[in-house]
Amino acid sequence: MIKLIVGLGNPGAEYAATRHNAGFWFIDQLAHKAGATLRGERRFHGAYAKVRLHGEEIHLLQPQTFMNRSGLSVVAVAQFFKILPQSILVVHDELDLPPGVAKLKLGGGSGGHNGLKDISAHLSTQQYWRLRIGIGHPRDLIPEGARAGAKPDVVNFVLKPPRKEEQQLIDAATDKSLAVMPLIVSGEMERAMMQLHRA
Asked: One GO biological process from the UniProt record (predicted)?
């Protein structure tokens, strides 16, 4: 069963609306639904709240370490509350999924995502759950004829706000993901995946 839900992003007002903060947005929505407010916890290097979600006690976390040091915050909470990696769900932006799509999976590589890379290093395993919220890829914005030699600027892309139509799709994917949270927190991951991936 999931005990800790981590949303990835970068702290600070200048990053708040950027694509890389899709994980933060998700946690904000969860906390709002639970009637909770995340507060800065120095020992956890993050903004943290303990909530009751669909009848289960869940720890919510937004690391405040900047993306590439997210593992420091995750491992601090996991060790303090004795939470195993398989009971952790990390919510993050996903370049390889288009806006409007969200996918749930256990384990796997980092796909070049520095937040996941650091979490895997700190937990000494890749076997934790991920909720991947599609933000699209900058290569899709390069005109068809110019694609051959063009190199997409991924860093610039993830650190910019989505366009209005993309934001609407990302919000829709977040809503679809929130709809399967009762299944996720009760450990019914197969059902959650079927419902989410079908939506």
From this structure: protein quality control for misfolded or incompletely synthesized proteins
Profile the chain (199 residues) by mean pLDDT over runs of 10 residues: 97 97 98 96 98 95 97 98 98 96 96 96 98 93 64 88 97 97 96 93
> ∠ at Cα 184 (108, 75), nearest 5°?
55
Q: Which residues are annotated as a binding site for tRNA?
A: 15, 66, 68, 114
Which residue ranges are tagged as binding site?
15, 66, 68, 114
pTM check: above 0.70: yes
Number of domains comprising the chain? 1
Domain residues for 119? Answer: 4-197
Best CA proximity match to 103, nearest among 133, 126, 136: 133
Q: Is 20 a catalytic residue?
A: yes
Tokens 């970068």 locate to 10
Q: What is the CATH number of the domain that holds 185?
A: 3.40.50.1470
